[in-house]
Amino acid sequence: MGLFSFSSQPTKSPLPKLRVRNTLSGEIEEFKPLSPREVKMYNCGPTVYDRQHIGNLRPYVFADTLRRVLEVWDYRVKQVVNITDVGHLTSDADEGEDKMEASARKQKRSAQEIAREVTEWWLGDLDELGIHREKIIFTRATDYIEEQIALAKALEEKGYAYKIKDGLYFDTSRFRGYGKLGGLNLDGPKEARVKENPEKKNPHDFALWKLSGRKKREQEWDSPWGVGFPGWHLECTAMIFKELGRQIDIHTGGVDHVSIHHNNEIAQAEAVSGRQYVRYWLHNEFITIEGKKVSKSLGNTVYLSQLIDRGLSPLALRYWYLTGHYRSPMNFTWEALEGADQALTRLGRAYLEAPEGTSQAEFLKHFYAAVANDLDTPKCLALVWEHIKKLNKATLAETDKIFGLGFAGERPSAKLAIIKESELPEGVQKLLAEREEARVAKDFEKADTLRAEIEALGFVIKDTPEGPKISKS
């Protein structure tokens, strides 16, 4: 990049056209929402049977970054993130056991209790990562059972569904263009999938409603087809229809959702509505450790709480994500995270030492050009570091509207200072003990009230699997 002026200029340059890579077309396209200034966006959320690791958390930082970009581009964003608390089987292809039921059996606890606890951990992680969750509509699958049954019934009435012994299935042969997202190979592992359920008409047919059969489940509901539970794919479409309408602008998720989950969403949604379901599909890549995808099944998971235990800022993880393009795989190492933590500290110091002034339009012109090019955050960071000594506070603050690192005052980027319980004021210790008693007794309403009292005294509680951690707010 050539040299440019760093003088403070009060007039803001017009923003470039925003372009994103659409998985549906496989091309980078200019972003044109359905409504001129409003964007409807849906992000696939967690299945809350277990804690979310650093691989699981990447999609939420990406979605938050995308939202920030859209807001800088002056769009009003209506964002929905789902919480899957029923129906996600151990195989995305509708085979195996429900993950929530399996976790409940293993832990000898109720699925509802596990879902609430894991959701609380996850929401706490979002807070630590600087994600604006107050701007998000969170939807739980179990709160939309009626909508899911209605959607499955509509598909059956239109001739897109058929019932077999274990449930109601979507007939993919009836939907023209099935598998168009990502160019799904319909001649893939056909034989294996037919063997798993020989009653299916087609190997890629998927469950809309699974029947409980003789096996008693904790989570099951009456339906026109019998007692059972909704299929995982059905929930996302039902919640989108309810909260955002039958057409939306953006749907995000991990690349592992492309072949099955998101193609199934498209099929059931467009079969009912007769219209394009999503205009822009955006997918982030995996996080790996030593070349292998971070996965609970592989036992190579790393959690945000482990970063904090090492004295690293949780925002160092956000910074590290931003150093890689969202469509590029990233290999995790502790050295890389420590480097990100140091860079975050230097960036915060640079902001504090930067001179006052109005934003530097010429620099921001180049910065926003990188943002507009499919959210090229690595280039954005490179631009900032290349010119860090010449940038003023106002300009750095503008960049942090995209980065969300908090160095410009949105939230402090200093490391979380964990306080030992014995060092707390006696009154706070007492409230903390009462809250733990309430949590053990599953009196979550009382626990929430006590949390609010503790926070009103100037402390922040972070619930972790190792117990609550408390710091000054």
TrEMBL record:
Keyword Mitochondrion among UniProt keywords: no
Keywords annotated in UniProt: Aminoacyl-tRNA synthetase, ATP-binding, Cytoplasm, Ligase, Metal-binding, Nucleotide-binding, Protein biosynthesis, Zinc
Residues holding Zn(2+): C44, C236, H261, E265
Record note on cofactor: Binds 1 zinc ion per subunit.
Protein's cellular compartments: Cytoplasm
Swiss-Prot/TrEMBL cofactor(s): Zn(2+)
HAMAP family: Cys_tRNA_synth
Name this polypeptide is given: Cysteine--tRNA ligase
Organism whose genome encodes this protein: Candidatus Adlerbacteria bacterium RIFCSPLOWO2_01_FULL_51_16
